């Protein structure tokens, strides 16, 4: 009962203020592409999780993953730091395999120095992306179907995607067809959540997940947009479709190989009444 009440409050506190802001902001000339305009909603899931943990269910923060765990979890920080660039390279390679981009367009404007700079920037911006991850991956995913890590992760990814949908109508994401755009954007975000959830469960900390989220936004999205949209002239839906290929392969491997279930058993990162020896279901 407490879990259901907490979920209802969390979703209400995450969605209602955010969607109101999404609707009102354009009326006051606020450009949602401006990073400063994104800050008010970027922290709403974390604020919701804090309020629910502290005042609604009063369950506290024991399983919130707030510790850095650098000594124990440094391999996951490295994965979170560098895998977004690897996925970007795989996406560009996939586009080349389909004849959508020429090799001469592979290196974005600014080249390697800019890419290196972005890798430093994501470390600085990690606390900003904690604002979403502390809510979605460190609260919702732990409470939604807690004994079924695959269903919990995919459900969290779907809810996370739906939370973003109004951005397709206020200038942040411009689609020729919003229906097709959302139909592609949604599974893309669900595949991202599989990777983010795996990092959270394996590391026992929300910080590698926040770093990976920063990398997805600042490195993966920027590299693919720079090469495939700006240089090759592809539209954003085509770029997302191409990106879905490596993202689906990676997230599918994580799921089908049982790594989400293994990670749940290894860290005990889900809130559940089941004995530790019980095998989690999909």
UniProtKB/TrEMBL annotation:
InterPro entries in the cross-refs: MmRce1-like, Rce1/LyrA-like_dom
Signal peptide limits: none
Record-level GO BP terms: CAAX-box protein maturation
GO molecular-function terms, A-Z: endopeptidase activity
TM region positions: 7-30, 36-56, 76-98, 110-130, 150-166, 178-199, 206-225, 237-256
Domain annotation CAAX prenyl protease 2/Lysostaphin resistance protein A-like: ranges: 120-219
The keyword Transmembrane appears for this protein: yes
A Pfam entry, by short name: Rce1-like
Keywords of the record: Membrane, Transmembrane, Transmembrane helix
Protein's name according to its UniProt entry: Abortive infection protein
């Amino acid at each position: 009962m407490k879990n259901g009440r907490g979920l209802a409050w969390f979703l209400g506190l995450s969605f209602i203020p955010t969607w109101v802001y999404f609707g009102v902001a354009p009326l006051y000339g606020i450009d949602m592409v401006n990073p400063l305009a994104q800050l008010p909603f970027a922290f709403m899931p974390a604020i919701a999780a804090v309020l629910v943990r502290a005042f609604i269910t009063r369950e506290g923060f024991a399983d919130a993953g707030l510790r850095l765990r650098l000594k124990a979890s440094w391999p996951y920080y490295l994965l979170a730091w560098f895998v977004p660039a690897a996925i970007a390279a795989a996406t560009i390679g996939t586009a080349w395999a389909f004849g959508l981009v020429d090799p001469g367009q592979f290196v974005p404007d600014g080249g390697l120095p800019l890419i290196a700079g972005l890798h430093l920037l994501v470390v600085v911006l990690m606390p900003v992306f904690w604002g979403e991850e502390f809510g979605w991956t460190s609260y919702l995913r732990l409470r939604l179907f807690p004994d079924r890590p695959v269903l919990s992760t995919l459900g969290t990814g779907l809810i996370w995607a739906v939370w973003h949908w109004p951005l397709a109508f206020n200038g942040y994401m411009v689609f020729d067809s919003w229906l097709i755009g959302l139909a592609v954007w949604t599974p893309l975000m669900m595949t991202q959540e599989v990777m983010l959830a795996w990092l959270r469960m394996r590391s026992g900390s929300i910080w590698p997940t926040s770093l990976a989220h920063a990398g997805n936004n600042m490195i993966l999205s920027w590299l693919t947009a720079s090469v495939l949209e700006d240089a090759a002239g592809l539209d954003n839906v085509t770029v997302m479709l191409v990106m879905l290929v490596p993202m689906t392969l990676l997230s599918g491997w994580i799921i089908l190989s049982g790594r989400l279930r293994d990670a749940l058993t290894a860290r005990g990162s889900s809130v559940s009444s089941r004995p530790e020896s019980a095998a989690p279901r999909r």
